[in-house]
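Regression check, NAP case 263:
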Amino acid sequence: MPPISMSHPLQVLVTGATGRTGALVVQKLQSRSESFSVRGFARSSQKAVERFGSTQNFFFGNILEPKSLVPAVEGCDALVILTSATPQMKPPAQPGQRPEFTFAPGEMPEQIDYQGQINQINAAKHAGVQQIVLVGSMGGTDENHFLNTMGNGNILIWKRKAEQYLIDSGVDYTIIRAGGLLDQPGDQRELVVSKNDVLLAHPPEGLTTSIPRADVAEVVVQALLEPGARNKAFDLVSKPETLNQSSVKNDFNALFAQTQPGL
Ligand code: NAP
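Current build output:
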């Protein structure tokens, strides 16, 4: 149960709500209306209609324009940050060459993943939001990680700086650093938490370095419910899909009990 000082149902704003994981979080929260009242923040009303059939409970704006966040977070208990810069593939200059990546003008990771997240954290803190759940990425301990080289964006470096800003903000945080995201069904895999990219450096037998977006979305929902997820930052991956089994029941209380505070 959320702390007694929070509303019931819990008022939650999800940013990046028209993104792939963000939309799953919105849908999961909507389906648990006894516990959650959900708002989405997005930049395209057309995309919101395509994903959700309407713009009801949506706020539109841009995380780089702090004023546009103000009405969206007002009265919220919790904020879920699912925005991210997204690299775009450029066709190779010559046939047979490796493709290159770029970011849209004005949408480099320093802007979206650092300043854009700072804007969200500041707006939430100012509005009295009590918990921020931030979905980020594993790999941030390695400056030379290939994701940092994409479009010269240093995306993992900027994401990690924003995570530190969140921790320093004094607002209760849950930082979920996912492994490679898969568009596969959730509840089919046992989830595993760790820290500091240990699982990337030394992946144990029987573990993948990836996880379905649907499972990440469920961890976000559980992080809003379970006190054990508060003020924790952790890496999140999954074991391979369990065959011949209809679903896997992860014990989220036990999972969060294995996580640690601090970056
Ligand atoms: P995604 O589909 O790329 O969604 C990103 C969202 O951010 C989109 O909804 C986008 O809006 C929104 N956004 C970007 N700039 C914005 C701005 N200026 N103002 C408002 N919204 C803005 O995300 P995902 O692939 O589900 O990933 C979720 C998180 O997991 C990200 O932080 C990602 O880095 C991380 N992650 C990804 C992987 C992977 O394998 N891809 C692995 C580990 C972790 P639009 O909908 O309008 O485009």
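Comparison notes: Residues 52 and 96 are 40 Å apart (CA to CA). The radius of gyration is 18 Å. No diff flagged against the previous build.
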